[in-house]
Amino acid sequence: MSLKQRIPLLRWSFLRMALGVRNISTTGQIGDGREAAVLDWVVANARRGDIDDVIAKIDQFAYEKSFLINVGDEKGALLDAAVQRVDARQVLELGTYCGYGALRIARAAPAARVYSVELAEANAAVARGIWEHAGVADRITCVVGTLGDGGSTIDALSTEHGFAAGTLDVLFLDHDKNAYLSDLQGILDRGWLHKGSIVVADNVRIPGAPKYREYMRQQQGVLFDTVEHKTHAEYQTLLADLVLESEYLG
């Protein structure tokens, strides 16, 4: 890994991302076209139908072309391990972005049906294109919406996609950090988790999800058994981050 790759402040695409924080919160994109560009890069450079190569090419794009805000390779390995510990049949990801997290989940749980909720239709289109190129579009469904929209998206997951009491094996939180706790509580209210379900939360330190982290501390040994993984923010080694892996105790 080069110095520029290890230290994000040396990369213009990282600084451009910082300038586009407001865009991310409203449109789900940084605002310079990098999300569409990663789809073009994958189609041009990754072997069709090879999920490993597609994941590798997205990582290469994020290191060498434009910084991306998906979970990344280092934290992605933690996600892989968590998913592999469960015999997953149904997985829900909140925050699709360009489809990278769902790809890793689909690879780690080849028998699972993966559902990914994304606020931005433009991101959903990019993700679907990447999944199709990787050969897993038949196993991943993107639902455009947000669990904080008053109930329409969570109702659609229930009525259209078969989410019901005790059916959700893995929940991956990688969207609006302020919504982590409220969205988890909405899922708990529906009873979708079962004893042994795993909840993985990215970016708990950067940008940070303090209310979610405090909740998991309060529920340690009660509703959840949580491990805090010390790691780095995506695609660099300068900034520390936390990934929380929580097993639901039922």
From TrEMBL:
Principal EC category: transferase
SUPFAM superfamilies: S-adenosyl-L-methionine-dependent methyltransferases
InterPro entries cross-referenced by the UniProt entry: SAM-dependent_MTases_sf, SAM_O-MeTrfase
Annotated PROSITE patterns: SAM_OMT_I (PS51682)
GO molecular function: methyltransferase activity
EC assignment: 2.1.1.-
Biological process (GO), any one: methylation
Keywords carried by this UniProt record: Methyltransferase, S-adenosyl-L-methionine, Transferase
Highest taxon of source: Bacteria
Protein name: Class I SAM-dependent methyltransferase
Organism for this UniProt entry: Mycobacterium deserti
